[in-house]
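Kindly go through one protein, given below as sequence and tokens. The question is how this chain folds according to its tokens.

***
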Amino acid sequence: MTIAAQTTRAWYLNRWNQLILGLIAMMAISSPQYVWTLFTGPLNQKLGTTLAELQWTFSLLIILQTWFSPFQAYLVDRFGPRLLITIGALLSGGSWVLSASVSSLGALYFTYGVLGGFGTGIIYVGIIGLMVRWFPDRRGLATGLAAAGYGFGAFFTSFPIDSMIKSSGYAHTLIVWGIIQGAVGILAAQWLRTPPENYQPASVAPAATVAQQTHRSFSPREMLKSPVFYLLFVMMSMMSTSGLMVTSNVGPFAREYGVANMLVLGMAALPLSLTLSRVTNGLTRPFFGWVSDHIGRETTMALAFSLEAAAILILFAFIDQPALFVVLTGLVFFGWGEIFSLFPSTLTDTFGPKYAATNYGFLYIAQGIGSILGGPAAAFLKQTTGSWTSVFILVAILDAVTALLAITVLKSMRRRHLAAVEERAEPAIAPAV
């Protein structure tokens, strides 16, 4: 009777329930990034500003979400996921509620950008850091599912939010959906827990996963002394930059080559492409994460990044064909979005689970670099050369180089790193008497 009662009370300590709670929390913070574009028109009209000035709100959201992630992740490791994810959800939802009544651009920057960015950043790195600890045997799959939640959440909110803006105004929409998203995140956070140190599930991990994992946890200070971390950082920066150079310019590509409004299956090519790409960008994260659990992280990176390079080149060759434009842009997103499962799982395999959230916080800065370089770099190349050709070629090169680095340099460096850890961990053998 007592054991049954304890088991009932501890339902949330099941790791799959932890994953579901983390997925819900991630879905609750996806709208600030993915539906921002729906608010730009009404906010522009209300504040009487230019679109360029208004878009700094979005830039601040991304900068606070990525560049401050080491500090945000440290707080999660220090005070636990329940408290910090609650605070993150409160900041994220509250930022929308406060944004509803702003009357100046500076106030919008602070509410939607700074508060929202800091809140969503806490939840994002906190949940990823939690999943790699609960799932040492399935890190790729678990982080992929959690990261997919961040993208899929907006799939369920985009249309209701758009409809409410049109019927009730943007301010009312921000208040209602800020409360809903904040409440959902806060509720999910109440049962989030960190697993015991050196937690190992009863299930047997795939051989490829076991062979590539360290049995020692490296502190952030120790990790930052390792060349393996900096190689991972450079590789993730390259993939973030190349992916965002394309994903942030799908609209300009479509309009430049005259396919934006051409019909595919009775729908305009550009919105159909964006809808399909949102789905493939979500599916690729758990899919390639699962693959990496079975065939190894570096091999999967080489496969996925090569797919991305090939998809880019084929897209460029057939970009003026509307049906192929829709299919190939979806394939491009499928070859790019998996970085959000492969890199955190590889990092934790290499440096251990104890400081997983903080360690990933440092690596996640690479996404911030990509978000800054991706759009401006692509626009600069287009302006300088007068065409998108150089952009497509550069993206394909970055993808191919990163794939090559994964299967050659990263694989050998990680093998030496793990061998050195195992060698230091072996007890000394006493001499025979």
